[in-house]
């Protein structure tokens, strides 16, 4: 298969003011990033509100959830919110869904929803994907003026790391983001891609594969260890793909190799490293 063109996303969740948030979105667009992605946690901006504000401040930049824990929401609510944001962004919305990240059970009590077993949550995600697609397709074909701009629905991103989620993503997603431990090595990343290919078969060629960079460069703030659960210096020592190091050319070469050998073409980066990755984005975006 011919390699996909590179796309780049910024993952951001907080800003001190509305103006600062919209300036971040405009800066990402100016630097050539393709997408602004917002996580869904109780300690960050509510993603649909934040992404709507970002969309109104930009012209080209796509916006997306990264990712909604499907067990936290009734599926019809996800469809309703996705429909609204797709419309208000002018068709620049990606719907990211997952089965619930590690630690999310501490937040579910605030959502008045039950955080089930892993198998139950995969089933909830599967059901949500089917219902959301059905309801958005119905809206596209219905008489109401409230219709998705992207037909029959916005692109769907699924976060996955294991066999059951790989199988679900292969069947239902347009984009698969690899939700791996940041300590995963280059060999471990290659092994996961091999596992995905074995499960997805020919369908893997239809998936845009994404990987998240937790850091860029060797000057990483210590508080990143709280976010990642591991000392960033350890990741640099082991050459973990979650941290990209080297000159801009060296970093670009690493991403090209991963794209050409593993098929990973959609690169997301922690928003605090927006500027550090920008030279690489300039070299690779759309190529």
Automatic annotation (TrEMBL):
Coiled-coil regions listed: none
A biological process from GO: alkanesulfonate catabolic process
Keywords: Flavoprotein, FMN, Monooxygenase, Oxidoreductase
Superkingdom, taxonomy of origin: Bacteria
Annotated Luciferase-like domain residues: 17-210
GO molecular function: alkanesulfonate monooxygenase activity
InterPro entries noted in UniProt: Lucif-like_OxRdtase_MSMEG_2516 (IPR019923), Luciferase-like_dom (IPR011251), Luciferase-like_sf (IPR036661), SsuD_RutA_monooxygenase (IPR050172)
Keyword Glycoprotein among record annotations: no
NCBIfam families for the chain: F420_MSMEG_2516
Protein name stated in the entry: Luciferase-like monooxygenase
Originating species: Catenulispora acidiphila (strain DSM 44928 / JCM 14897 / NBRC 102108 / NRRL B-24433 / ID139908)
